[in-house]
Design a protein that fits this description.
With about 120 residues, this protein is mainly alpha-helical. It has a domain at about 85-115. Helix content is about 75%, strand content about 0%. It has helices at about 1-25, 30-35, 55-80, 85-115. Helix 3 (about 55-80) packs antiparallel against helix 4. The longest helix has about 35 residues, at about 85-115. The chain is elongated. Keywords: Signal.
């Protein structure tokens, strides 16, 4: 039992010393924007250079509409008491998610084809 107390005391004394020594050595933080171009951050697509302001706004409104539909369905699901109706709402939300995913994948494929040309 004596050895356990001594070992614990030694560890408790060494722990703050090791913490101080590691805190004294500042680690160099990489600047991600310098290493990775701004166009690489969002899946490698730089939308700023390719779209007009109107196109950007249209895209943002489309995203907003999708988000509002998803949130509306989520709220309906959470407030629904009937299990069958709740399940139907979940299916509806899942179909909306699948349609959105398919649309995104199609858009990515188009961008990849444009990039290869």
């Amino acid at each position: 039992m004596k050895h356990l107390y001594k070992s614990t005391a030694v560890l408790l004394l060494l722990l703050p010393i090791s913490m101080i020594s590691s805190a004294a050595e500042p680690q160099k933080a990489d600047e991600p924007m310098k290493e990775m171009g701004a166009h690489q951050g969002m899946g490698g697509m730089d939308m700023k250079c390719c779209q007009s302001e109107e196109q950007k706004n249209e895209h943002m409104r489309s995203m907003q509409e999708h988000m509002l539909q998803m949130h509306d369905l989520s709220n309906q699901i959470l407030s629904e008491k009937d299990a069958a109706k709740k399940e139907a709402l979940k299916k509806q939300q899942l179909e909306l998610m699948k349609a959105h995913h398919a649309q995104m994948m199609e858009h990515r494929q188009q961008k990849m084809q444009e990039h290869k040309k």
